[in-house]
UniProtKB/TrEMBL annotation, chain A:
Subunit structure: Heterodimer of an alpha and a beta chain.
EC number(s) per entry: 1.2.4.1
Catalytic activities: N(6)-[(R)-lipoyl]-L-lysyl-[protein] + pyruvate + H(+) = N(6)-[(R)-S(8)-acetyldihydrolipoyl]-L-lysyl-[protein] + CO2
Example GO molecular function: pyruvate dehydrogenase (acetyl-transferring) activity
Name by which UniProt lists this protein: Pyruvate dehydrogenase E1 component subunit alpha
Keyword vocabulary terms for this entry: Oxidoreductase, Pyruvate, Thiamine pyrophosphate
Major enzyme class: oxidoreductase
Domain Dehydrogenase E1 component: residue ranges: 49-333
Superkingdom classification of source: Bacteria
Amino acid sequence: MLAEHDRAERLTEIAKAEGLYEEIHLLKEDGTLAGPVDDIPPEVMVAMYRHMVFSRAFDRKAIALQRQGRIGTYAPFEGQEAAQVASAMALAPEDFVFPSYRDHAATMVLGQSPANVLLYWSGRVEGIRSPEGRHILPPSVPIATHVLHAVGAAWASRYRKESAVSIAYFGDGATSEGDFHEALNFAGVFHLPVIFFCQNNGYAISVPFARQSASRTIAQRAIAYDIVGVRVDGNDAFAVYRAVKEARSRALHGLGPTLIEAVTFRMGAHTTADDPTRYRDQKAVVEAWQKRDPIVRLRLYLESQKLWSEADEAKLQDEVKRRVEAAVEEALAIAPPDMEMMFDHVYAEEPWHLAAEREEYRRTREGVSV
Amino acid sequence: MSRMLNLVQAINEALDLKLADDARVVLLGEDIGKNGGVFRATDGLLEKYGEERVIDTPLAESAIIGTSIGMAVNGLIPVPEIQFLAFIFPALDQLFSHVARMRYRSQGQFPVPMTIRTPYGAGIHGPELHAESVESFFAHTPGLKVVVPSGPYDAKGLLISAIEDPDPVVFLEPTKLYRAFREEVPEGLYRVPIGKAKRVREGEDVSVFAWGSMLRTALKVAEALERERGFTCDVIDLRTLYPLDRDAIVESVQKTGRAVVVHEAHKTAGLGAEIVSLINEEALLYLRAPVKRIAGFDVPVPFFALEDEYMPTEARIRAGIEETITF
């Protein structure tokens, strides 16, 4: 036991010395820099900010809509805007994106329409259609299963010698699943162009990370698979952006996969059906994490660089409000679904028994007795 | 040109031809490369097509199916092999949650054409969990197709059709038949349609429905019954278990007025129950006797010392058919 422990300690020390899972910070909580950011163009910084502000407003609106009974259960992401927005901005349109059900800020950056996200949470399958020309897969509901899909898509890209990477978005809970292990193992063995992007938001519903995993970080799991592991401040948009950019470049240069752990926090409930006060001191943790708010610190930085002003902010707030309202209107104005849709797209061609069931449904729905 | 091939050779040839025919086709699985598969179904293919196309994977069934999904949504046509059917259990989440549902959830945007090949069924005296036949799991899952060949000719033609099918196909290869007999198999690509059953013996007194290795056993019984008692059986090889060939089933029962379903899977909630229901719905008034199921017992597939008694024997099948005819 002791020998094993010593070995783990030694590996940890080596990993630390190699900078394998030291938490990387670029943009500090007070809006000052911890290192140079010359590789991030100012217009990207501003765009990040705009996306993050929009995402938060959208998220809060979605919760309100659920409370009003206008959409179904919803999974909020407030607090995770930097992790999602900055990672998505580091991708290219041709990349394959495998989100979970909490990653709407990322998918909206990549072109998913906000109205579609609301539709999805209104129980409409149309809401998970990928925008034209993009490869945004339907959000995975089972945990960690889609991490393997990203590995497979990366495999196909490399097979066809296409310059695209795949990215899987998942949470800390997913790292306890067997599929997470299998995905890292396959990606490591075959050196695939895939990015594993974990938003460690502290809780898998009610179970805190300390109970989720005996390993102190998620990034350190990379050592076991001999792949690159990176741990970044997930509320630091610059650090996240650079980590994903570098991972993408590594992948495209044939240097294999990267596991990124973005340390962040879910400010609200797991879903609108969850009550976080049952398992954490909600007031205290939210206050603590508010100091690390990803949006506040980015704004402070932009202002210090004269990239943002009060007037810009007022204009943005107006615009965001309009866009959110427009998305709500669009989503809620959509015609009720044609119930027969449930029979569509089960197979490329409808088999006889489905055609018969569709016909039976049609007859009985119209109240025609047979 | 055609030659005499056994079933595993026919499978190998189908894979070979599709690899040559379509660069999108890749094979992946445990031991399928250098080893050529534990049953040699992929023998020689690594040498011919290289390790980008014929991939020896780590031992991880969920990953084999899960990464195949990613390949399929990104334009490849993966043909994953699961070494034995019961080893697919760790991958059932991938199969049920994603393979079967991806086309539906994405409303046709991300279909996942793939053919999951796996040896299945009892009769080779393998270790525990090497003899299951849980085809009803898959047939109960909308979005999947389930295909079971019972001979070399069909195996090759059905496998080619499965790989070319736009939907995911679970392709169950009866382990017992891999090397049991040879049949004339044409060279080159040909297709046996999915969703179509085949009448393998013409008869008037009873319809016998079977698939996989049970088809062979049922056929032997049918031959003996005709020879010894003059009863003729309409023996139908279902070949595709989902979707079933309704017309073939119903027409045969309308002709004979009697039916027996033979399968080695457990009886309760097995495919036999589905076939009996279909007959009830479509041909009840033609029946002259209750439809009988001769099936594997509702016990865990026993260790191989008892295996032969678990599977429907010729004696059990014979008794079932005779009782149905003389009801």
